[in-house]
Amino acid sequence: MLWNTLNQTVELGWDFYLPVIMFVALIALAVPVWAAIGAAAITMLVMSGDLPLSAIGESLFTGIDAFALTAVPLFILTGDVLVRTGLSKKFLDVAEALTCWTRGGFGSATVLVCGMFAAISGSDAAGAAAVGRMTIARLVESGYPRPYACALVAAGACTGILIPPSIAYIIIGLVLGISASTLFLAALIPGIAILVSILVTNIIMNRLYTYETGGNMGFGEWLGNLGHSLKSGWYAFIVPGIIFYGIFSGRLTPTEAGATAVVVTILMGFILGTLKLSDFPAMLVSSAKVNGVILPIIAFSAPLAEALAIMGVPQGFVAAVTGLTDDPSVLILLMICILIAAGCVMETTPNIVILAPILKPLADNIGMNEIQFCIMMITALGVGFITPPLGLNLFVVSGITGESILKIAARAIPFVLTMLIVVLLIAYIPPISTTLLPDIYK
């Protein structure tokens, strides 16, 4: 019914249908997403005749000609350096010392270190791989079933795009013309809320099934352990401290904070003797592979957005949806369903560049704050990282452990449900994402 209404509103023809069919077919054939988006965009523009082919090259260039986008490779490289220097292990030591007094201490520590890693790298896949290698074997030794241990790491790593600084917020800010620093500030409370929801879920599951025992430590012993871990690893927190202070104080842009974090992390690695010049080629190649996935998608999103705008698809979508119902609560729920469904089958970056320009006018139409919309969108897409069939984090932890993806996904269901609760709270309670913002953005 919605599709029919959209078709009547925009008068869609084969210049729209054929590129869409081509995009779906290419994705099904495992063609890289950037190539599928590019082929669909070029086909749409050529068939419609609204934009000359000579303008597509310029559009591709302008799609990535943004200073803010430089922060993406910098944060990715920071995460790689963090692992190479062993500083990520210091995060785990501190997190374990913080939670060792509880019965599910190491499970909680795993979730906390995911959040700590997220506050530096801004990448969920990097967090899942790094934390998974450090913790999954020990989680199993502590009494957790292997599939559940994998699900716990996969869920905790979702905070990679939800806790600032986040690559996803840089991209959606670029697509919609919103300051990344503003989005980082708005995402702080929602990101922590997601982290807490995963922590609470793990504690409840541990209470129900007694995965992990312990928690009989006295206050004095706990304080001593915490003091020792902080004394031996306090310097690891210099990097996230620089990032957070620099961005949230306004002294550094996200790009400048990322560059500073890279330099400081490298210097610390040399000082500690855990980083050598011979490590650089592998680090740079690893970071380049991740960037090679993200940046072409952003580049080809520009001609696609132009093609959709010329055809009036975003405006037609708003007219079609509001023609079915004008209840803001129902429309918000519809957007969440679309985002979660999209997050289940495609990664965050293509979802942002395709769906943000389409859904943003609908959010504007019902009076939703644009910052709140961005936070809701990224958080809803984050749920897709642990949801089949293409939950990225499920594949990452399955790849490093050999555990069945279906078994991991089944154990991830409680985390999905609690994350969905947070998504609904963000969507229907604006202050969650606007409380920390200046009045101009509220």
Query: Beta-sheet strand percentage?
Result: under 5%
Percent helix range: over 70%
Could you tell me the number of beta strands? 0
Quickly count the domains.
2
Backbone shape: globular
Structural class comes to mainly alpha
Tally of helical runs: 23
Distance between the termini: 35 Å
Which sheet architecture does the biggest sheet show?
Answer: none
Which stretches are poorly predicted, pLDDT < 50 over at least 5 residues? none
Mean pLDDT equals: 83
List SSEs in N-to-C order. Answer: HHHHHHHHHHHHHHHHHHHHHHH
Cα-atom radius of gyration? 22 Å
Describe this structure in words.
It is built from 23 helices and no strands. It is mainly alpha-helical and 442 residues long. The chain has 2 domains: 40 residues; 385 residues, no CATH class. The mean pLDDT is 83.
Entry keywords:
442 residues, mainly alpha, 2 domains, 23 helices, globular
SSE inventory with pairings:
Elements: H1 2-10, H2 14-28, H3 33-48, H4 54-64, H5 71-85, H6 87-99, H7 105-121, H8 124-141, H9 146-157, H10 167-176, H11 180-209, H12 219-233, H13 238-248, H14 254-272, H15 280-311, H16 313-324, H17 328-345, H18 348-365, H19 370-383, H20 392-401, H21 405-411, H22 413-428, H23 431-434
Helix pairs in contact: 1-16, 2-3, 3-15, 4-15, 5-14, 5-15, 6-7, 6-12, 7-8, 7-9, 7-11, 8-9, 8-20, 9-20, 9-21, 10-11, 10-18, 11-19, 11-22, 13-14, 15-18, 16-18, 17-18, 17-19, 17-22, 18-19, 19-22
Give a short overview.
The chain has 442 residues and is mainly alpha-helical.
